[in-house]
Amino acid sequence: MAAVTSRLSGRQMRARENEDLSDEQMQELLEQAAARLRTKATSAQITRQEEQVFRFPRLDAGALPKSYVRSDGHVAHLDSARLLTEKDRKLSSQARKVEDPITVKKAVLEKKKATAGSDWFDLPRTDLTPGLKRDLQLLKMRNVLDPHRHYKKERGKMKALEFSQVGTILQGPTEYFSARIQNKDRKKTFVEEVLSGEAETGRFKKKYGDIQNTKTSGKKAFYKALKAKRAGGIKKC
Predict the structure, then answer these.
(1) What's the pTM value of the predicted model, to 2 decimals?
(2) How far apart, in Å, are the Cα atoms of 74 and each of 16, 25, 70, 71, 77?
(3) Considering just the CA atoms, what is the radius of gyration of the chain in Å?
């Protein structure tokens, strides 16, 4: 009975408070209630949109490959033919070549150092053959080939270039009659050209004879030749 009396008194108190509220206060309370309803509706809508955004689609794995393990009761059978492809099977049946990484790296560096680089049109390293060595020595002594030409003297021993290449100069079609070398005069190396010119002029042989005469002048062989020359010039009556 006491609880019923307290409830009635609470309702009467709220009714009295409501009677004491003005129209403006009632309007403000209604606006606050409407704002809370709008906020609640907006949050519910955002929650539904988030659920739609983060909803994962159903995945379709498609046709799965057949398993290479087949169960027969408590026994599992393995299909060994499906473990490796035919290409891998052939590789596994052959001898495998294992390369040392240090050796491979060294080979790559040597291949890189085999040319002068792209800035020098990949000029190859000099292959110093005996023929090329003779040609280089002849170029170093080119001042003795022609006494009428003068070249800058080179001191020290002949050193081959680290990177070089030997080629053949081809004349153009306009030089067929003006600067063309005949086939019979063409030689493979500089040494052959020099020997061919010496066979025609004989300048080296003559120069060698002059040097030998100068060296033997005043010696025993010189006087013997002089006596023979004098004896050959006297005629007996």
Answers:
(1) 0.42
(2) 84, 82, 11, 7, 10
(3) 56
